[in-house]
């Protein structure tokens, strides 16, 4: 049995999760959360929180998430827009020195994708593609419990696949999926189509569509067509066993997920359309991903035979 600690160090809350791994199965022991320690003393404060949480239990390893860009080799945070005090630090090493427990850092989106693939909606499949639909759109290809990052660390950028016509994207291209479906873009496109300056959100667009607003429905229709194209591209390129869709926009299955999945099925020709399912783990996915990453690092294995959460 291995006792593993997950530290999901988010922008506002830090979530702590203690789990035991027995024969590749993960079992929940306990959880807690607290306001995220901020500023120069953050790592000292985080160590105190963690020690209190462990309450005398001896974790064999921990994983800590990083909300930002992480140098995978050194474990140093390159940039973190919301947590500037982490920049230039190696959070896993900082916490490891204070707790005397081996640790590993993992980018938060990677942790979430690993958790969903191994313990959540992708559980049981060896080859899973996980999408996060939010303000931005990210993707991760998880094989055997590890994310395939590609030769230069840039794989999975589904948000910047060409998926439609015209829209200028933040990345400089035109017609990217993110430019048509990204959370803030949906609101902005609806406002522009109506000729108003309202800073509408994606939720505003969905609620308007529910009320029968034709412009909102047309914008969502174009966005879900773009998502369907992107899902088909994923199938053509990597043929995953399951596609998991998470992120804030996945909370609107009626107007976002279901239409896109229907269109993907209708437009598929040679593609093997796998189950396309919503993410299951919710706000604890990052902490579970940190636990799984710590477990991998402990065992030195990149593949888990069988995993289970409780
Ligand atoms: Zn783009």
Give a quick rundown of the structure.
With 310 residues, this protein is α/β, with parallel strands linked by helices. It is 37% helix and 23% strand.
Any overview of this molecule?
- The chain is an alpha/beta fold and 310 residues long.
- The chain folds into 2 domains: 2-113 and 282-299, 2-Layer Sandwich (Nucleotidyltransferase, domain 5), CATH 3.30.420.40; 126-278, ATPase, nucleotide binding domain (Nucleotidyltransferase, domain 5, 2-Layer Sandwich).
- Helices cover 37% and strands 23% of the residues.
- It has 9 helices and 12 strands.
- Strands 3-2-1-4-7 form a 5-stranded mixed beta sheet. Strands 10-9-8-11-12 form a 5-stranded mixed beta sheet, sandwiched between helices. It has a two-stranded antiparallel ribbon with strand order 5-6.
- Strand 9 and strand 10 (146-148) form a beta hairpin.
- Helix 3 crosses helix 9 (285-299), helix 5 (183-194) packs antiparallel against helix 7 and helix 6 packs across helix 7.
- The longest helix is centred in the last third of the chain and has 25 residues, at 214-238.
- The chain is globular, with a radius of gyration of 20 Å.
- Zinc ion binds at residues 160, 169, 171, 173, 176, 178-179.
């Amino acid at each position: 049995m291995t006792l593993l600690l997950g530290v999901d160090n988010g922008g506002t809350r830090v979530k702590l999760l203690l789990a035991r791994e027995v024969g590749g199965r993960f079992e929940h022991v306990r959880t807690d959360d607290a306001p995220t320690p901020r500023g120069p003393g953050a790592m000292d404060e985080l160590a105190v929180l963690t020690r209190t949480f462990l309450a005398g239990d001896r974790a064999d390893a921990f994983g800590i998430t990083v909300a930002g860009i992480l140098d995978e080799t050194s474990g140093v945070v390159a940039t973190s827009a919301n947590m500037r005090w982490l920049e230039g630090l190696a959070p896993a090493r900082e916490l490891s020195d204070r707790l005397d427990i081996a640790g590993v850092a993992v980018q938060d989106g990677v942790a979430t994708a690993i958790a969903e693939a191994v313990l959540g909606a992708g559980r049981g499949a060896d080859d899973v593609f996980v999408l996060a639909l939010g303000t931005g759109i990210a993707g991760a290809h998880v094989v055997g419990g590890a994310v395939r990052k590609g030769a230069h660390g840039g794989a999975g950028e589904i948000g910047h696949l060409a998926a439609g016509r015209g829209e200028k994207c933040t990345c400089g291209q035109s017609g990217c999926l993110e430019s048509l479906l990204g959370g803030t873009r949906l609101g902005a496109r609806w406002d522009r189509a109506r000729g108003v300056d309202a800073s509408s959100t994606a939720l505003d667009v969905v609620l308007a569509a529910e009320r029968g607003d034709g412009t909102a429905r047309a914008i969502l229709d174009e966005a879900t067509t773009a998502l369907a194209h992107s899902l088909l591209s994923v199938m053509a390129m990597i043929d995953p066993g399951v596609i998991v869709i998470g992120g804030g926009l996945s909370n609107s299955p009626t107007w976002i997920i279901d239409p896109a999945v229907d269109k993907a099925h209708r437009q598929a020709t040679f593609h093997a359309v796998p189950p396309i399912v919503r993410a299951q783990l919710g706000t604890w996915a990052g902490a579970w991903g940190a636990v799984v990453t710590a477990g991998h690092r402990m065992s030195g294995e990149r593949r888990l035979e069988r995993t289970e959460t409780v």
